[in-house]
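agent> step 3/5: call structure_predict on target 'Thiol:disulfide interchange protein DsbD' (Hydrotalea sandarakina).
agent> reason: downstream docking stage needs a structural representation; sequence fetched in step 2, passing through unchanged.
tool.input:
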Amino acid sequence: MKKIVFAFALMFFFSYIHAQIKDPVSWKYEAVKKSGDTYELVITATVEKPWHIYSQNTGAGGPVPTNFTFKKNPLVDFSGKTQEVGKLQKTYDNNFKTNVLYYSGQVVFKQLVKVKGNVKTNVSGVVEYMVCDDQQCLPPTKKSFEIKL
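tool.output (status=ok):
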């Protein structure tokens, strides 16, 4: 009887592991103070090899571009668009039948914000992104984040 219970437990364990969705991207979030009321949000994506993550500027008809949606905070004003810093690669993708822009290894996203008044607050939001390798793509993923200012 113990062997049967052990066998079922082992099957359940392996099916649970197999069912886990792979996410080859780890995220780091921080705020760097630039002046009295201005901060730079620094969001770093580290992508495991052989995966790559798509630029915010990947055009229509291709993979899901990386996108940041910041929740409204009446104490914070956003300055400009979110910038990308990394080794941008461009290639024609036969699967999508279009040119794609992507990063391998690491990419840093930067966003300037100004805080209204001398208060402590935070910026929160959601990042949506998609990763592929040379053989497969994973479904788009959304992750919530919060950055203290």
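agent> step 4/5: record observation. Residues 1-19 have pLDDT under 50 and may be disordered.
agent> proceeding.
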